[in-house]
Amino acid sequence: MKALIVNDDGIDSPGLALLARIAVDAGLDVQIAAPHMERSGASASLTALEEDGKLILTRRDMPDLPGVDALAVEASPALITFVASYGAFGRKPDIVLSGINLGPNTGHAILHSGTVGAALTAAAHGARGVALSLNGTAPSQWETAGPVAERAVRWAIDHGEPGKVLNVNIPDIPPGDLLGLRPAPLAEFGAVQAEIGEFEENGNESHSVAVTFRSVEIDDSYDSDAALLCRGWATATVLQMPFEVAHTDLSELEFSRSDRTRS
């Protein structure tokens, strides 16, 4: 089974190296292709730096992963996954492992996550996807993240389904403090919310709007992924592609050419 290892923190992230090592130890045929610099918040955008219509990429040496091909790609994580699905880096991946992200990807804010966006892009092309994140602005507890990530990857190999994504969030706490790993629904909000200031006229047709981000107070009244993560649980949620037809009455919107002729 071929695995693509990607992230949105860039190819030099410690979480990427750990995830690649886990994939190798699980017996997967590993290909690393990750952004050459941080691309957090890229969602599933298909953006890149190009030269004459060609993606720019550089082979990188990964000393702790001998024999593993590693590419630093000047593109968003979703675009990397997209082109990999069409054979840009050899045989298309059967599974895409995205992460381990520096910071959580919980709640409906996963819409904006480059980590989750890469995994969902894989799912859209018929592969299995796994997105993994370690909570905290400067996470350090890789001894906790490693075993949870290994369990998640092995579950995805044995039980994951093409077209679906396993989204796992891990608390940044010592291994002895981890309560375990359990399924959880998405929280209504993510880890942060935006506060929008006044629209300001700066002169010379220049305008500005102040945008600041603040941490959200977690709703602890039900066991969402965000709430459980704060209590010391690692959480797992299976995601499907969100582009399903909603059951909404559109009879007042539709028309045909004959309707316009009669009117």
Automatic annotation (TrEMBL):
Catalysed reactions listed for this entry: a ribonucleoside 5'-phosphate + H2O = a ribonucleoside + phosphate
Keyword annotations of the record: Hydrolase, Metal-binding
Domain Survival protein SurE-like phosphatase/nucleotidase, residue spans: 4-184
Spans traversing the lipid bilayer: none
EC number from the UniProt entry: 3.1.3.5
Highest taxon above the source species: Bacteria
Alphabetized GO MF terms: 5'-nucleotidase activity
Pfam families cross-referenced by the UniProt entry: SurE (PF01975)
SUPFAM superfamilies on file: SurE-like
Family: Belongs to the SurE nucleotidase family.
Protein's UniProt name: 5'-nucleotidase
Species for this entry: Rhodococcus chondri
